[in-house]
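Possible regression after last week's pipeline update?

I re-ran a chain I had predicted before the update to compare outputs. Posting the input and the new output here so someone can diff against the archived version. Not blocking, just want to make sure nothing changed silently.
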Amino acid sequence: MLDQPPAIRRIVESLRATVLAAAPQAAEAFKFRVLCYFHDDAYFGAIGGNICMIEIKQGGVFLSFIHGSLLPDPRGLLLGKGKFKRFARVPDEATAKSRAIKGLVRAAATLRPWD
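New output (post-update):
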């Protein structure tokens, strides 16, 4: 992440703060070349207990959810057509700090699909 432009780093830092505030019980680790947030008591850890991931792709920041198709998305932020994985574009710090993003993270933190 240190090799990213300052604007991208600021978005990631804001998004990280939002995720940690919305899911304070989440374990945080750098896995699969991204910041992962997960239930560390889950079967298969960062994958099975995934809450979300902060990814940088093609010069943009994305908040990804492995179990995203199970999330309520009243504002239509989630993109993707896979069976489960969804992602939201986070183009700026305001979006990173938004109630909509915080709501997605909170909803993802309540999922326990391994139970």
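Follow-up from reviewer: compared with the archived run. The mean pLDDT is 92. Marking as no regression found.
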